[in-house]
Design a protein that fits this description.
- By secondary structure, this protein is mainly alpha-helical.
- The chain has one domain.
- It is about 75% helix and about 5% strand.
- It has 7 helices and 3 strands; from the N terminus they run αααβββαααα.
- The protein has helices spanning about 1-20, 25-50, 55-80, 115-125, 130-160, 165-195, 195-204, and strands at about 90, 95, 105.
- A 3-stranded antiparallel sheet has the order 1-2-3, covered by helices on one side.
- A hairpin with a 4-residue loop joins strand 1 (about 90) and strand 2 (about 95).
- It starts with a helix and ends with a helix.
Length: about 200
């Protein structure tokens, strides 16, 4: 262990110098983002699928249920009042039924809980001052939730106007958009907020 520590202490300054010399800070940051995101993703899947959210199963299920109900209510309001799309809403199943026989069911997996948790954990783990994290994490969570509303309302527009593109839109357009937003929030954190882009990378 002492040998490893000694080797690391000699190697670290050299690696740091190489990163700074070749302007690789952005690549290191993106690599760290990817690694943290993947670790959180697979740990969440293991916790959800294998452990069923033990030891706080009831709290997690209640949270997911609450989020899905809020998402359904807010999305239904926007579909009706903003887009003017005719639909029949069934609140107890959280389902929007459209005149062309299309429907959208806002179930627990649609709640956005996983994405909110991913963003929150990413920001907790990622380096940065807590005085900024304490306001940035709640703001980011609200933005992730608004992204989910955009996803449900966008899918409503698709299913009414272009139903043949439903599967593509659901799987390859709106779902990845979640991670585009999370990545953008992380970039904003690194480049502008934590703090002020580390003084713009020490003034370049």
């Amino acid at each position: 262990m002492k040998n490893f520590a000694a080797k690391y202490s000699r190697l670290y300054p050299s690696v740091k110098h190489t990163i700074k010399k070749y302007n690789l800070e952005a690549l290191v940051d993106v690599s760290l983002f990817i690694v943290i995101t993947l670790i959180i993703h697979y740990l969440y899947r293991f916790w959800a699928i294998r452990l069923h959210y033990v030891p706080i199963t009831d709290y997690i299920m209640a949270g997911r249920k609450f989020l899905s109900e809020v998402l359904y209510t807010q999305s239904a309001w926007i579909v009706d009042h903003v887009f003017g799309i005719t639909f029949t809403g069934v609140a107890h199943t959280k389902t929007l039924y459209f005149p062309n026989n299309g429907f959208i069911a806002v179930n627990l997996s649609c709640s956005g809980f996983k994405q909110i948790l991913q963003f929150g954990l990413l920001m907790i783990v990622y380096p940065g001052p807590w005085k900024h994290k304490l306001w940035y994490i709640p703001v980011g969570i609200i933005i992730v939730h608004l992204t989910n509303i955009f996803r449900i309302t966008g899918l409503s527009v698709v299913i009414v106007n272009w139903p043949d593109y439903w599967n593509f839109s659901h799987d390859y357009l709106f779902r990845p958009f979640f991670y585009v937003v999370i990545f953008s929030l992380w970039v904003l954190w690194v480049e502008r907020i934590s703090p002020l882009g580390n003084k713009k990378r020490q003034n370049q």
